[in-house]
Amino acid sequence: MIDDLFLIEKYAYLKSPIHQIDARAKIIIAFAAIIAIVAVPYSPVIYTVGAVFFLVVAGLWALSGLSPIIYIKRLVVILPFGLFLIFFQIFYKNRFYDTFTTITTLPFGIEIYAESVEFASILLVKFLVSVSFIILLSSTTKTQDLLEGAGRLGLPAEFTLVLGMMLRYLYVFGYMIRKMRQSLETRCFDPFDRALPYRYRLEKVAYAIGTLFIRSYEQGERTYLAMLCRGYGRDSHLYISKKPLQSGDWAFLSLGLLLVITTPILAWIGYIRII
Amino acid sequence: MRLVETRDLTYIYPGNVKGLDSVNFIAERNARIAVIGANGAGKSTLFKHFNGIFRPTSGTVLIHGEPVSSQNIREVRKFVGLVFQNADDQIFSPTVEQDVAFGPMNLGLDEGTISHRVDEALTMVGIEHLRERVPHHLSGGEKKRVAIAGVIAMEPQVLVLDEPTAGLDPQGVKDLIGVINTLAERYGITVIFSTHEVSLVPEVADYLYVMHRGQIVAMGTTSEVFADQDLLTSVRLDVPVIPKLIHSLQEEGMDISMAYTLNDAKTEFMKSYRRRV
Fold first, then answer.
1. What's the gap in Å between the CA of A99 and the closest CA on chain B?
2. Rounded to whole angstroms, how far apart are CA atoms B258 and B243?
3. Does B105 touch chain A if contact means CB atoms closer than 8 Å?
4. What is the per-residue DSSP string for B119-167?
5. Which CATH number fits domain B2-237: 3.40.50.300, 3.10.129.10, 3.40.50.2300, 3.40.30.10?
6. pLDDT band for position A275 (50/70/90)?
């Protein structure tokens, strides 16, 4: 399982017109789209906006040359978190509607309301569109570029430095865990081996986790001392070189922003409508 | 008897990086084999195939004549013990004794046997006095020996050591060479180890494999391999000082035979000196 960590960026390293766009432009468009879809009031207008936005994601995904299966796999991982919250909405009244019509009554006096079902489906659209933009962003941009892009957009140095170190050490500890696991395997230890007493296995796994904590603490100390040796202080920050946006990036950014802003407005005034 | 053998072993890392390329490796009983190569030559990758941590992309790994499979993986790991380069990756128990007992416990042995094996393993590497110690208070050389004891306690017939001398002080290296030689000579264990410190190879190895970019580029006895000094340099390795010195003296016209270990060199120098006097 830990081996998947090292492949997590596999798709972000591919080459395509979408991959090549500057991370800043992609970050701005992704967040603009999320803000736009979240800002659309709770009304059926959302379906039109959601459909257009989803088509945009689909188009960009096609341009990126990635398989739709990758999108679906990543979506499936995130989906349960949102679906759980959205599903329970159908049983509750909310402040966006004045009257509630009961569709059915379940045992224990639990009722399902038509308006709440509509509310839940609106939430679902908002959730799906937001998550899709994030999946598109993370699948076509290297984490290092995301970090630098965020830094160039003005994310404070404290955040970029800490996030940068987090990314670096995620992999360092990933390798550490892999090595430790291999060394346990070498000595015939399998935590799921029923031939060994349950308590024994639990104890050894606990020791391994404990050792990992101690090692991470020691690694932290060593790294921090090494940082101090190289003059780390309050004003230290991650080095991010200047990089002007290319004309292609500007075009993507302005077209994207135009689309993200005009779609909800046109849908709201009724100029475009799907449902 | 071939204890470990690979046939056209190729391994491609996820992400399409070639780790090994058609490697043919043979380890006979009671041999001391060194695998030398620069960083990233594929030594560790090869070793991880010897006890089934990695499975070949193509080709086969035969342990005691049997291909490694899910069915015999336990037997394979009992037969071939692997000591990792960084002892900290391996040692994780609160005391040295418990860490050495870890392997035998996993084999499901009874308490008497485990205790006997722990005693034996600690004696073999000469660290009986560290038994009750906490691993993170030990020095690098001591940790290394604990790691070796932890694997020896499983009584493997083949002991594979990944860069055993890395990060040790001269005395630590000397002690380790002693341990390796004892294991091979007194206990008949086949020892395979990797290193890029070529100078210690003649002291510990009978047979040598040279790896470069995932391939085996040369093999043979120490004298055979060290005779081709250009090859070693071309794969980012060095030639040990003694044969290098003798080689250059020979080129200067001195009448001296080639030697690789300190003792042999001394004998050859004395012979040459006596001839002149």
1. 57
2. 6
3. yes
4. HHHHHHTT-GGGTTS-GGGS-HHHHHHHHHHHHHTT--SEEEESSTTTT
5. 3.40.50.300
6. low
Q: Could you give the dihedral angle defined by the CA atoms of residues A209, A214, A216 and A220, in that order, rounded to the nearest 10 degrees?
A: 160
Maximum alpha-carbon separation in chain B: 67
CB contacts of A13 in chain B (<8 Å) are none
Task: For residue A61, give how far its alpha carbon lies from the nearest alpha carbon of chain B (Å).
Answer: 22
Domain chopping of chain B, boundaries: 2-237, 240-277
Interface-testing mutation among A11, A14, A188, with chain B (most B C-beta atoms within 10 A): A188
Query: Quick one: tokens of B11?
Result: 């391994």
pLDDT range class, residue A57, cuts 50, 70, 90 = very high
B44, B37 contact by CB (below 8 A): no
CA of A222 to nearest chain B CA: how many angstroms apart? 15
d(CA B76, CA B52): 8
CB A96 within 8 A of CB A119: yes
Residue-by-residue DSSP string for B165-194: TTT--HHHHHHHHHHHHHHHHTT--EEEEE
Q: In which residue are the tokens 């694997």 written?
A: B151
Mean pLDDT of chain A, nearest integer: 86
Contacts of B228 (CB under 8 A, 6+ apart): B218
SS3 B59: strand
